[in-house]
Amino acid sequence: MKKQVLFILISIFVFSQALIPASFQNPRVGIVISKTSFQQHWGVTQMAAHGWAAAVNLAGIPYDCLFLEDLPDLKNLADYNLLIFGQCGYAEDDLYKKLIPALTPYLSAGGNILIDGPLAINDAKARERNHEKLDEILGIKYGGFHGNSEFRIKINKNSHYITRPFEARQFLTQHLVSGLNILDFKENGVSLLITTDEEESYPFLACRENGKNRLALVSDFSTWSGAASFFRNVQPQVFYPNQLFNVMIRAIHWAVYGDLQNPFPVPQLSNANLTAIVRLDADASANLDAQVKTLNYLINLAKETGVVPVYAWVSSGATKAGWQDLAPLGKKLEDVGGEIGTHSRFHKIDRGMTEQRWKEELDDAIHEIEYNMGDYEYPIGKVEWFINPGNTIYMDDYEQVARRFSFYMTHGFEQDMPLGWGNLTWYTGPHPNMVVLENTPSPDYQWFYDPEWSYTTQQITAYQEAIFDHIFQNIGRGVIFNQMWHDYSITSQPQYGKSRIMNQKNIAMYDAISAKFANYPIYCPEPEDLGHKLRAMAQWEYSWESNDNAVKFRIDLAKVRLDTIAYFTGGMGLRIENTADYIQNVSINGAAHYGFNKQTVILPNLKKGINEIQVTLGPNPYREPHLTYVSKRLPALQSNGTDLEAELLAKSKARFSFYVEDPFVLLHADWQEWNRTGDHALNGYVTSDRKIVLRKLAGGDFRITRATLPIVEFSQSENTVSLTLQNAETGERSLWFSSAKAPKKALLNSGEIPFEKPAGSFRLTLPEFAEKADLQIMF
To answer: Which terminal residue of the chain, N or C, has fewer Cβ atoms less than 10 Å from its own Cβ?
Structure first.
């Protein structure tokens, strides 16, 4: 009897805990780096900044980029629910003295802290200081530098929120390059992850909650030890599906929200698992043949997949190649959604830059491209896109970039920190809207041309496909894929005198990734779209509340720094985290919204001010017609009677998917296919701005299962289905349909055409016609 009573009491407690509503007002993270640390170890500091920015973006929480040196004077420090200290091991003596009185009230007010690497243990001259007072208020201790290339990181305890999705003793990383600076709590801490060689073990991720604060300690997520790496060109030279980013996302959620039992909302950069854009470094700008071939390859890529590039010329080289040939191709690229940017004027940016040299390399490059494109009557407007030439540009030069460009692609850390992006404002001065994208591993230069790398095209292709699949399948959340591509590599320019493998043809890797772009449900933004979405992720504010089966989300765009951001929110995602249930109903600003998949709402454009989103969850999949995926901007999605109308903006291919069981017709799509794999998915695409209409049919069992040209009008009577068709740009004209009743006759513009009957359906191959044609199918 006592056991029964105890069981009932436990059940009531657990059930009551699950029903406690949860809510949160304006979550925000401060990502902190140290200027003094940057002066001592710029690479590690910059890597930490970029990597933690990516982790916070994937966690979906708005953020600001802060300097350790500014914390004591910040009046709004309490506004940050979490401070992440990324490799802030060095601090001036005067700053150290001010940190304790700055952090003490922050912690007293309930602030939370995540520390990656040592915090302020050294002075500006790299001498270790007495840091006992700071350690005391944080409750931390340093265990020294431990480990080597025999160590890996694994799960130690999986009963905590952060590690709950993982198996006990599961390895999360490949072997490390070197040891780690070990951090731990003096008492009451829990080591969730350890670094170990199976003989010795040390904490890698430890956490502690004391009723007022949540603290997490990470023993070097972002150093040359390569804890987060997907692929490294050192033994063993293998790809590894590293899980540390997934752990850090959950660590951020726990540090901000605690151990939530309820579902909660997480904004995503896009509604898809992966967001893809091509970074093209045109180092061979002076080679006209390479330019013609590369530009045409990327134009065709955009038409076939929707993925578009930032194509950056070395402007002096482009002038040598000849603007009379380049200008029309550049405009053609922009017409399919790509952007022409610059890779500097002479490809010579280094640490010895003066104001005059910055002007020559950047301002003169902008002028050279804009002037010549316009002079040959192919104007492209302002060049706002910049790709880092040569060695990595140090972050303390970012103001030089930000004053000229809104969108910046850089590199240098992809082997050790494979993800990095955001609206990064460190060192940008009075220019707070620049977005920065670190390239994903690994650059084609290294794969094919670096003398310290040596792989066959077949090996490179397999490794790069594995990296793409890992990012898409295991990380997701709209993660950005922007591998560095070069014109000389796409065109397989020859190389001589190297001891490495020298491949005759490189194109297989690009074709393999292009096939991934074409076949995976990814988001394919134009650069302007991606830039605005990245700014939204940092700048907007939101609040939420939830219970077991409902989430209310209030997102405010009133304070974003650009009014145009609201026009680019269409196509972003709102993921419902911490639940196995399915989305059942969504409303946005009081109107029903039929754009969502299992656990992610597809956002349309939002209002500049406050937007209210309500989501209802349930145990079973939603089975009424709804939009489940888009690859391009979605300004609006509206229900109009029995019609579902989706607006898509596209200069190249824009893909979409609906879930639909009942008889329907889809109007205005350039191509469509329904239920090919038995999943009731209606997949299709358009190649220009379009409003597609999913129309529910009143009855019968007639269904169009495939169409390679647009259907612009539809009607049906008891014995006749009538369609108005628009000629296809591709020239292919076929329509497949299913019906329980066998058709008797088909007429195209009153002329009879024959049926073919593949298994389970009927097919009509249509003869050539002018712009539109009327098709009648009689039963």
So the answer is: N
Q: Whose CA is closest to 141, among 91, 225, 202, 229?
A: 202
CA distance 387 to 414: 15
Confidence at 470, pLDDT banded by 50, 70, 90 = very high
Angle between helices 244-257 and 42-59 (to 10 degrees): 70
Q: What is the pLDDT of residue 2?
A: 46
List pLDDT tens digits, range 723-757. 999 998 777 899 999 998 889 999 999 999 999 98
Contact between 529 and 514 under an 8 Å Cβ cutoff? The reply is no
Cα separation, 624 vs 266, whole angstroms: 25
468 near 481, Cβ under 8 Å? yes
Q: What is the spatial distance between Cα 542 and Cα 557, in angstroms, rounded to a whole number?
A: 9
3-state secondary structure of 614: strand
CA distances from 466 to 471, 487, 501, 548, 613 (A): 9, 23, 21, 37, 37
Whole-angstrom distance, CA of residue 255 vs CA of residue 267: 17
Distance CA 310, CA 328 (A): 16
Burial 545-570 (b: 16+ CB within 10 A, else e): bbbeebbbbbbbbeebebeebbbbbb
Residue 740 is predicted with a pLDDT of: 87
The distance of Cα 312 from the centroid of its chain, to the nearest Å, equals 21
Distance CA 624, CA 696 (A): 10
Instruction: Sketch out the chain's domains with CATH numbers.
Output: 23-260 (3.40.50.880), 277-443+481-507 (3.20.20.370)
Q: What does DSSP assign to residue 43?
A: H
3-class secondary-structure state, position 294: helix
Which of 745, 713, 737, 715 has the alpha carbon at shortest distance from 726?
A: 713
Q: Strand, helix or coil at 239?
A: strand
106 alpha-carbon distance from chain centroid: 32
Hey, is 46 helix, strand or coil? helix
The span from the CA of 52 to the CA of 54, in Å, is 5
Checking if the pLDDT of 717 tops 50, the result is: yes
Q: What is the pLDDT of residues 348-383, one digit of tens each?
A: 999 999 999 999 999 999 999 999 999 999 999 999
Q: Tell me if 306 sits within 8 A of 632, measured CB to CB.
A: yes
Q: Which two tokens stand for residue 527?
A: 């650069």
Euclidean distance between the first and the last CA atom of the chain, given in angstroms as a whole number: 71
Of the candidates 518, 468, 516, 507, the one whose C-alpha atom is nearest the C-alpha of residue 652 is 518
- Whether residue 452 contacts residue 233, with contact meaning beta carbons closer than 8 Å, is answered with yes
